[in-house]
Specification:
The protein is an alpha/beta fold. The chain has six helices and six strands.
Length: 217
């Protein structure tokens, strides 16, 4: 029909890792993000738990997230290479009232980067979550240094979060999705270039750069 418009719909699927030490609130964050609720009696994961979240990103794009909740016990790190395979993004969680879990977050990120990267060789986008921000006993000195911590450990950004009070859970998730879509588009452009298809880009900008900027809070 003359004048008709064809709308192309995109269905995107991303595997997302949720990692960090035992007791930092990973399962509660997923429960809040996917089911919009908080359960104070929610038990810690043993092994790996899975959840699926569907997001209507825009009128023509549906994003489906496979959230892999990796148990924080040390013994499960030995299996992390298997769990990480195929992931396009990660949420790395620590307890804002326990500085030792921030140190552990750096170790989790190091483990992640040593076992998984994008086809371009760059780390997958990972967002740091300073969880339990509603609680007293927050380490304010630690929070003030998170910009430097993220730069040193190649995080794309960080958020203070609370699964209990629903603080910044959706915002952190949306930010990570945006980073994954930018990286995915960049990888697709790289593939097109390898196949001999010219893709125009702004001067000085490459696909590998699109997932490496950090937000200002």
């Amino acid at each position: 029909m003359a004048g008709s418009t064809v709308v192309l719909f995109s269905d995107r699927l991303f595997k997302v890792l949720v990692i960090g030490d035992l007791g930092v609130g990973k399962s509660s964050i997923i429960l809040r993000y996917v089911n919009k609720r908080f359960d104070g009696g929610y038990k810690s994961s043993i092994g790996v738990d899975f959840a699926l979240k569907t997001i209507e990103w825009d009128p023509s794009t549906v994003v489906r997230l496979q959230l892999w909740d990796i148990a924080g016990q040390e013994r499960f790190k030995k299996m992390s290479r298997v769990y990480y395979k195929g992931a396009m993004g990660a949420l790395v969680v620590f307890d804002i009232t326990d500085s030792s879990t921030l140190e552990a977050a750096a170790e989790w990120k190091k483990d992640l980067d040593s076992k998984l990267c994008l086809d371009s060789g760059t780390p997958i986008p990972a967002v740091l979550l300073a969880n339990k921000c509603d609680m007293t006993g927050r380490d304010m000195d630690g929070v003030s240094s998170l910009d430097d911590f993220c730069a040193e450990n190649s995080f794309v950004g960080w958020f203070e979060t609370s699964a209990k009070e629903n603080i910044n859970i959706d915002e952190a998730g949306a930010f990570l999705v945006k980073q994954m879509m930018l990286c995915d588009a960049g990888l697709a452009n790289e593939k097109d270039n390898r196949d001999g298809i010219k893709v125009s880009q702004p001067t000085g900008e490459s696909p590998s750069q699109t997932c490496c900027w950090r937000p200002h809070f």
